[in-house]
């Protein structure tokens, strides 16, 4: 990966993945594994979790974007990720608005600072 940036991976519903793919994030690694997973009604939680863990293990991925409603399905796996890279960002979907109270990364960041730090 010398001289190259890292990829953005997406785990999301069809609309989210389509939007990011049209924006140019779609890639296959040398093992022909994509950097995205389209989650449909019949996608198992096991498949979502395995894909998330495989994205964490890949050294070519720097950011994982995941729809928040999907993140809720694998919350234990997301909460267990403590490294800064790849960064895991929860994003809204067309059908499910963002809820900051459910975002584990935001809760961790809030715990790092007190109100006095911002005065």
UniProtKB/TrEMBL annotation:
Q: Give the InterPro entries listed for this entry.
A: ATPase_V1-cplx_f_g_su, ATPase_V1-cplx_fsu_euk, ATPase_V1_fsu_sf
One GO MF annotation is: proton-transporting ATPase activity, rotational mechanism
Which Gene3D superfamilies has this protein been placed in? Answer: ATPase, V1 complex, subunit F
Q: Where are the transmembrane segments?
A: none
Q: Which UniProt keywords apply?
A: Hydrogen ion transport, Ion transport, Transport
GO terms under cellular component: proton-transporting V-type ATPase, V1 domain
Reported function: Subunit of the V1 complex of vacuolar(H+)-ATPase (V-ATPase), a multisubunit enzyme composed of a peripheral complex (V1) that hydrolyzes ATP and a membrane integral complex (V0) that translocates protons. V-ATPase is responsible for acidifying and maintaining the pH of intracellular compartments and in some cell types, is targeted to the plasma membrane, where it is responsible for acidifying the extracellular environment.
Q: Subunit arrangement?
A: V-ATPase is a heteromultimeric enzyme made up of two complexes: the ATP-hydrolytic V1 complex and the proton translocation V0 complex.
Q: Which family does it belong to?
A: Belongs to the V-ATPase F subunit family.
Question: Could you identify this protein by its name?
Answer: V-type proton ATPase subunit F
Query: Which organism was this protein described from?
Result: Scophthalmus maximus (Turbot)
Taxonomy, top ranks, is: Eukaryota, Metazoa, Chordata, Craniata, Vertebrata
């Amino acid at each position: 990966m010398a001289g190259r940036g890292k990829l953005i991976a997406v785990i999301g519903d069809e609309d989210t993945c389509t939007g990011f793919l049209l924006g140019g994030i779609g890639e296959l690694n040398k093992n022909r594994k994509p950097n995205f997973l389209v989650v449909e009604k019949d996608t198992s939680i096991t498949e979502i979790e395995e894909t998330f863990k495989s994205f964490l293990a890949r050294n070519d991925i720097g950011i994982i974007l995941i729809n928040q409603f999907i993140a809720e399905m694998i919350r234990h796996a997301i909460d267990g990720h403590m490294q800064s890279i790849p960064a895991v960002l929860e994003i809204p979907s067309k059908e499910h608005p963002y809820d900051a109270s459910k975002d584990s990364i935001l809760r961790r960041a809030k715990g790092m600072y007190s109100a006095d730090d911002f005065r």
